């Protein structure tokens, strides 16, 4: 079942055509790898889905209706969450405080409302358990490994009952053990029926966890294939231009 559809989407910045006539759909509970060289249009494409940019042409549709977004908070209301490459975490805060940053739980009445730390620790712990992560709610982020930090960022997306999670280079600059941990987190999201778009330069990671791979080159989609019917060699050829299109 399709949760989001891009129909002939283009994005122009003056005379620069960053994205040209791109169409594809995202299916429920599927991991989709988004690959391409630097400048291929991946970031612009993701920013349109995330509400940062509006398409110059074409349409983004959810549940059959056109989705018109002017800012990222509107995308969040529609169940679209982003895990940025820098994770946007506060190192001096606990895991739970980062999960609820900007969406803190409070208790009390009227002007006498205070932060409900117990409820936030409890809910954060439940989210980490759902993700099968060893991250603990009271741990400080500055003492965490790369994989644990990813768990905090991913847990944050679960607060809003996300339908789609866009992940930007989640396995960049972390150890082999932590890469395995992050890929397991992605599988946990998929198993919960959440669609994951994995933007990555790491071919082994995409082939390990993705169901499909979409390849961008010079602002155009040159492939949209099931992982089972492709190979790293073919995808490399599509990224570099050695293979024109499939």
UniProtKB/TrEMBL annotation:
Which Pfam families is this protein grouped with?
Answer: ABC_tran (PF00005)
Molecular function via GO? ATP binding; ATP hydrolysis activity
List each coiled-coil range: none
Q: SMART domains this protein is in? A: AAA (SM00382)
* Record keywords: ATP-binding, Nucleotide-binding
InterPro entries (alphabetical) = AAA+_ATPase, ABC_carbohydrate_import_ATPase, ABC_transporter-like_ATP-bd, P-loop_NTPase
Q: Where is the ABC transporter domain?
A: 4-243
What name appears for this protein in its UniProt entry? Sugar ABC transporter ATP-binding protein
User: What is the originating organism of this protein?
Assistant: Plantimonas leprariae
